[in-house]
Write a structure and sequence with these properties.
Helices cover 19% and strands 38% of the residues. By secondary structure, the chain is an alpha+beta fold.
Length: 162
Amino acid sequence: MKRSVIPNTITISESIGAAINQAQDAGSDVATTLAEHFNGYLLGRGTVASVSSETRGGFDFGVVDISGSRPLTVAFQNENMVASSHGEVLATVPDLISAVDDTGTPVTNADITEGMEVSYVGFPANPAFSPVLQRSQRPRSREGVRSDRTSNELVSIGSVNR
């Protein structure tokens, strides 16, 4: 069991829940709070302009498009796989790409609907998930992960009939 579980997962999960509750109670922005407390970065926020999804072979494939100050496209295969803006990849697996609604409540892809106000936050993967590409080798900025790939190379993961 010790070799197959990331250490402190339950403690980290409890800390995330506590940070969300504290931010909501204080009237603070939950997405910003999570990014600041858990070494994350705000990928984007705005209104869900479109959601496309379909189920194939037991997987939910889809794309969420966000309109806002920085338009954002998030492709998913059950979990969020890649976030991009204007063709530039901002985050991709193994990093975590999470969404919260305008109340700061975490939302799953199944819960996201057109017209919702959402924020997406990226979090660096635990080093155990990325042994080949060490965190020190991944260029990062406050805006997110930089890559020489375009989102078109990765969006095929979540391509659906739109």
